[in-house]
Amino acid sequence: MVRISIPTLPPGPLLPPNELTRLPPTLAAAHLADFLERGRGRTLVITGAGVSVDSGIRAYRGKDGHYANPNYKPILYHELVEDTPRGELFRKRYWARSFLGYPPVRDARPNPTHIYVAALQALGLAPNLITQNVDNLHPKAASLILSSLPPQTRPPAPPSILELHGTLAKVHCLKHHHAQSRDDFQAELAGLNPIWDGEAKESERTGRRPRTNPDGDVDLPGADFTSFVVPTCRICAEEGIKSSIVKPNVVFFGETLTPHVRDTSLSLVSSASQILVLGTSLATYSAFRLVKQAAESGKEVLMISLGPSRADKLAGVDKMERKAGDVLRTYLDEVVKTNSGPEVDAVKAVLDQGVVITPPDVEGHGGGVTSEKWEAVEWFRER
After folding, report:
1. Helix segments in the chain, DSSP class H
2. 383 and 243 in one domain?
3. Residue 302, beta-bridge partner list
4. Where is this region: Disordered (predicted)?
5. Which residues belong to the active site?
6. What confidence score (pLDDT) does residue 322 get?
7. DSSP state, 279?
8. Cα dihedral 305/307/311/317 (nearest 10)
9. What is the pLDDT of residue 9?
10. Is 4 part of any domain?
11. pTM of the model
């Protein structure tokens, strides 16, 4: 049997601040400016969960690199797709928890860093983006800038955003690959599980939501999921064929990337002149191998992120141990001040539209309801 484990960082001591980390903000922005100038419009950006923290979505790891919730046990891919009564229980657990965890992700708005990354794309400084995040916030930020452009200057296609690990905004069935929006499937779940739906609406009304992970899952210790109803594929049923298991369009632990996504990500790295890595520990190999490929091929890699990462000892990677958004904003302020054109005007119009929301229970703070409180909710245990 193959043992599947949650990605972790290699053990090692925390490194002292390096020369780049010690730069004052203006010089850090100047270093980024020089880096992007050398890229000549062919810089590839790779982002991770740290970029979405200011949108109220908790990262997997804290600033020390440790897993933020070591007791959290996600559903593994082989468990979700197992066509047995045991697999059915795993699906009930996943979809019940995700039913509660999806709305906070769905309703999240781009924070300043999402806006700044979209600005790099719109200005042609870093046209391609690979994100490990499944929260759909990078596309939302890109849409803000596109909508600010005069219609006659809008590009024929949206910016290039490859969602390496998929998106929570869509679901599909495994057997026939019928695609469905997550909002439609969420409505099906609500209709089939009115008690859960009522409590979910109450938690939304009061703001007392359970801790939500970046993948839209929540942890509910002690909850009984056996009565939760999970529908099979509605489209299959409408077409009169045997329905199959419905899965969100995200890559689960133990699941491999699709060949298309894998090949596209490798191609984007190959065609880039250099790599800018933002807000990630690169704990998952699917992302780390892209940075490793770039570094080993001699491409310049600049990483701006808080906390230890899997690439800290990788030759050819320069790292600023600081919040990426702060460096990007200082840099972009100078760019929009010294340049002109419709893209610059569009960036100026949205540069301050990012929201900042502290995620519940980040570094011990926040107003969200904890999983321990949810454990005490009677209807979870009784049903």
Report:
1. 25-39, 77-81, 85-107, 112-122, 137-148, 182-192, 194-206, 234-238, 259-271, 285-296, 324-338, 342-350, 371-375, 378-382
2. yes
3. 276, 318
4. 196-220
5. 165
6. 94
7. S
8. 40
9. 64
10. no
11. 0.88
| Strand pairing report for 128-131 and 246-250 | unpaired
Q: Note the pLDDT of residue 378.
A: 31
Within this chain, do residues 39 and 89 fall inside the same structural domain, yes or no? no
How many separate helices (H) and strands (E) can be counted in the chain?
Answer: 14, 9
Give the Cα separation of 186 and 254 in Å (integer).
Answer: 25
- Residue 135 has a CB neighbour count (10 Å cut-off) of 26
What does the pLDDT read at residue 205?
A: 77
User: What six digits make up the tokens of 131?
Assistant: 């994100």
Kindly report, residue by residue over 83-101, the tens digit of the pLDDT: 899 999 999 999 999 999 9
- CA 251 to chain CA centroid, Å, is 11
Pairing mode, strands 128-131 and 43-47: parallel
Tokens of 65: 């690199």
196 and 344 belong to one structural domain = no
Q: Could you tell me the CATH number of the domain that includes residue 32? A: 3.40.50.1220
d(CA 110, CA 325): 12
Q: And the tokens for 247? A: 């899965």
Residue 86, in any domain of the structure: yes
Q: How many CB atoms lie within 10 A of CB 260?
A: 9
* Helix, strand, coil percentages for the chain (3-state, nearest 5): 40, 15, 45
List pLDDT tens digits, range 324-366: 999 999 999 999 999 999 999 999 999 999 999 976 654 433 3
b/e per residue 65-94 (b: at least 16 CB within 10 A): beebbeebebbbbebbbbeeeeeeebbbbb
Cβ neighbours, 10 Å, residue 276? 26
> What is the total residue count of the chain?
383
Q: How many domains are there within the chain?
A: 2
Residue with tokens 């990605």: 7
Give the structural domain span for 96.
69-107+166-250+371-383
